[in-house]
Structures are given as structure tokens and as C-alpha cells.
Specification:
The chain is built from ten helices and six strands. The chain has helices at about 5-15, 15-35, 35-55, 80-95, 130-200, 205-240, 260-270, 275-295, 340-405, 410-445, and strands at about 60-70, 75-80, 110, 115-130, 300-310, 320-330. It has a four-stranded antiparallel beta sheet, with no helix packed on it. Strands 2-3 form a two-stranded antiparallel ribbon. The longest helix has about 70 residues, at about 130-200. The protein starts with 6 loop residues before the first helix and ends in a 9-residue tail after the last helix.
């Protein structure tokens, strides 16, 4: 099923498409570069990239320099009875040799803490088997994808908002032009009535009635000016520009139609919507979290290598250096069933996200379908409004000619003028509502091609 326009409507709209698209596309690109909310989301994405790099950095060895200098006094003594063991032997040897070659020695008492000591070393710590590090990096990678998809999703939303704000502003411009034309018409009617009154062809109440119509129109103009300023300010806000900045508009503001297939649009939305990609990434992250918790039952193995210098003084010679390599095994054998609870939590989280994804898919399909038929409905309103305007304009031209000739009443003139004005107003509203609705449909179906960054 496709949105179709009659050949006549297509011909009327198509002529000004190029100029308008160029102007609007320039504003879209400006907004994608300067919008403050988008800048914040880009910053969050860039931060997530650094978090991912931090997680990946845990695979690499950790090298640190450690230095210690200690001063100690007292403490435990290591008693070594070297005198008790050797003095009897030395005495016997002295007797056998009839000499004093082997003097008596004292027992040794060695302090456990040396009075001064220094240790300066480089330590390398390299994880050899640690599932937590692996799955943590995988989780961080998926969360980075979430931030990226969030940026792309807002970019698409921003494009739709810029288009909506642009068309809303153009709508107010057209309405103001209509009020200007109606003002000229009412002023001409007052001039005609004053001339007819001076010629005694009508009474003074007709002049008053015409002036009252002009005053009523002035109130509508004030309301239209208010909406015009609000629309202008919001559009500039989206582009992060001064709110009173002028907005470039096409010389002619007739709009081009679009033809899209409903089934294709729904399929494209399912495969392209960033919100669904975000849920998929969350789902994958919960899956990694589940696997990580299951691997908590496994041991962690780490290699540690130290190389440095020890001694009572700072000396860095081959006699003072040392090297030591270790393999450190860490294995949590029991933690009060905490890990079992974590596994069940992760399993439930995964089930919840799977349900959310299915619901989101259905919502996307429903959203695309509703907006599709809204666009189709407004498109039909445009065709009807064009015919209404044509008929109302011809009717007014006839009544206006008769009124100037005194063959029609003021009531007939006002009614014909009001009908024509309302018809033109309805055409303006329908035309720009069509573009606004289509901007929403385009966003829902991911039909606007975003430039990659």
C-alpha cells in the first residue's frame, strides 16, 4: 500500500522541492553540529570509549616501582649458639696442637629487624586467567554501543524536530501572509462601504460592521505573530543560535509529496531503529554478565615478577640485586551462596530485556503504522482543501463583484470572504501538517539517511 497523490497535486508541489530541500538540509546539518543536547550525548559516548579502553587495559601487565627504607630498634632476636657448639671443639684442637690457634667465640644474637634496611624493586603483575576481566571488557563494549546508539537515536530525533520546527515556522509565515491579504481586502471593503454610504446606497451600520471585521482580524494577527515568534525562537534554540536569528525561507513554500510502502517502512524501522539496537546491546551485556557470574566459581591465576635491590645501604650492584617470580592462585570456594544469587539475578535480567525487546518491536510497528495513516489522511485533506479553496475563491469573486454593484448584501460578502479565508487557512494548515506528520513518520521508519561520523 502506498501514499499516492493526484497528478495535479504532484505537479503543483514538485516545482519548489529542490530549493526548499537545500535550505532545510543546511539547517539540519547545522543543528547536528551545534545542538547542545547532542553535544552532551556525544560527550557521554566519548567517555564510554575511555571506560572501554580502561577495561581492556586490565589485560596488560601492571608494572610498578616500589621503594622502602626502614629504620628499626629492638624487636625479636634470633639466638645462634655458635660459641657453645664450636668452643669445645676449638679447645680440643688447641690441646692437640699445643697452641692458641683456635680462640674462644661468643654466642651470636642476631636482631630479627635490621637497624637499617632498604628494598627497591620493580614489580610486574600479569593476569593469566581471569574471566572477570574478559567479561567486564565485553560488557563495557556493549555499553559503549548503547551510548553510540543513543547518539544516533537523538540525531534522528533532532532531524525530525528541526523539520517540524521549520515547517511550523513556515506555517506561521503563510498564515501572516494570508492575514495581510485579508487585511487589504477588508480595508478595500471599508472604502467601498464608505463610498456606497456617501451615495446613500447603504446605511452607516454596514461601515461599522466592516470596521468591526477589521478589528477582529487584528486580534487574529496578534495571535499569529505570537505563534510566529515562538516558532522562530524554538527553531533557533534547536540550532543553538540566538533566538531572534533570521530564518531563511524559500521564495515559494509549496511542498513536495513522498511515496513510501508501509511494509517496507515497518521492516526498515525494525532493522534500523537505534532504540532496538540499544536493547540488543543491553541484552548482550546481561548475557556476558551471566557468564561472568558463572565463571566466578573458577580460580584466578596471576603471575608476579619482582626485580630489585636489598641491603642495609643503597647499593645497586650485582651482589645486592634479587629476582623473584611467583604464580598466585585465588579461588573462592564458598561465599555464602552469593554467586548463586547473582546468577539468578542475571538470568532474570536477561529474560526482562528479551521481553522489552519484543514489546519495543511491536511498538515500533504500531508507531510506523499510525503515522503512515496519519500522513495518508492529511494528504487527502490537502487535495480536499485545494478544491475547497478553488470553489471558495470563485464564489467570493462573484459575490464581491455583485456587492460593489449593490446586488449583494454585506452579510453575503462577509460570509463569502470568511469562507474563502477559512479555505485558504485550511489549505495552509493541511499542507504543513502533512510535512510535519511526514517528518514524524520519516523518523519512526528511519527513512532519513544520517551521515556517519
Amino acid at each position: 500500500m502506498k501514499i499516492k497523490l493526484t497528478f495535479a497535486a504532484l505537479f503543483i508541489f514538485a516545482s519548489q522541492l529542490s530549493a526548499q530541500n537545500i535550505i532545510l538540509e543546511e539547517y539540519i546539518q547545522e543543528g547536528l553540529q551545534s545542538n547542545l543536547t547532542l553535544k552532551q550525548k556525544r560527550s557521554s559516548y566519548e567517555k564510554s570509549i575511555q571506560v572501554l579502553k580502561e577495561a581492556k587495559g586490565m589485560f596488560f601487565p601492571d608494572i610498578s616501582l616500589n621503594a622502602r627504607y626502614s629504620v628499626a630498634d629492638g624487636g625479636r632476636l634470633i639466638e645462634f649458639p655458635v660459641g657453645d657448639m664450636l668452643n669445645p671443639v676449638y679447645s680440643t684442637l688447641n690441646q692437640l696442637t699445643s697452641s692458641d690457634q683456635f680462640p674462644q667465640i661468643e654466642n651470636e644474637a642476631i636482631p630479627f629487624l635490621r637497624p637499617t634496611e632498604q628494598e627497591t624493586k620493580l614489580r610486574l603483575v600479569q593476569p593469566l586467567f581471569n574471566p572477570q576481566i574478559y567479561y567486564n571488557s565485553k560488557i563495557k563494549s556493549e555499553l559503549t554501543n548503547v551510548e553510540k546508539a543513543d547518539v544516533e537515536s537523538y540525531k534522528r530525533e533532532l532531524v525530525a524536530e528541526i523539520k517540524t520546527a521549520f515547517y511550523s515556522y513556515l506555517k506561521t509565515i503563510h498564515v501572516l501572509k494570508l492575514t495581510d491579504k485579508t487585511t487589504e481586502l477588508l480595508k478595500e471593503n471599508i472604502r467601498v462601504n464608505e463610498r456606497l454610504f456617501s451615495n446613500d446606497k447603504i446605511t452607516i451600520d454596514n461601515v461599522y460592521r466592516s470596521e468591526a471585521e477589521l478589528s477582529k482580524l487584528d486580534q487574529n494577527i496578534a495571535e499569529a505573530v505570537k505563534y510566529n515568534k515562538s516558532a522562530k525562537a524554538f527553531f533557533n534554540f534547536l540550532l543553538n543560535k540566538p533566538l531572534e536569528s533570521e530564518i531563511e525561507i524559500p521564495d515559494e513554500m509549496k511542498l513536495a509529496p513522498f511515496e513510501k510502502d508501509l511494509q517496507y517502512s515497518q521492516e526498515n524501522a525494525i532493522t534500523s531503529r537505534e532504540e532496538l539496537d540499544m536493547i540488543k546491546s543491553y541484552e548482550q551485556a546481561t548475557d556476558y554478565n551471566l557468564k561472568m557470574n558463572k565463571f566466578n566459581k573458577a580460580p584466578n591465576l596471576t603471575a608476579v615478577v619482582d626485580y630489585g635491590f636489598q641491603g642495609e645501604e643503597y647499593k645497586f650492584t650485582s651482589d645486592d640485586d634479587f629476582v623473584m617470580a611467583s604464580f598466585v592462585l585465588s579461588w573462592d570456594l564458598f561465599k555464602g551462596f552469593q554467586n548463586k544469587a547473582k546468577i539468578l539475578q542475571a538470568t532474570i535480567d536477561k529474560q526482562i530485556i528479551e521481553t522489552q525487546y519484543n514489546e519495543a518491536k511491536n511498538r515500533v510497528n504500531l508507531q510506523v503504522l499510525e503515522l503512515y495513516y496519519e500522513v495518508e489522511s492529511v494528504e487527502k485533506e490537502i487535495i480536499a482543501a485545494q478544491q475547497e479553496k478553488l470553489s471558495a475563491t470563485k464564489s467570493f469573486e462573484i459575490i464581491n463583484k455583485k456587492y460593489k454593484e449593490g446586488q449583494a448584501s454585506l452579510i453575503q460578502f462577509i460570509d463569502a470572504r470568511t469562507t474563502m479565508t477559512n479555505a485558504e487557512f485550511n489549505l495552509i494548515i493541511a499542507t504543513y501538517d502533512y510535512q510535519i506528520k511526514y517528518a514524524g513518520f520519516e523518523r519512526a521508519a528511519c527513512l532519513y539517511e544520517l551521515n556517519g561520523e
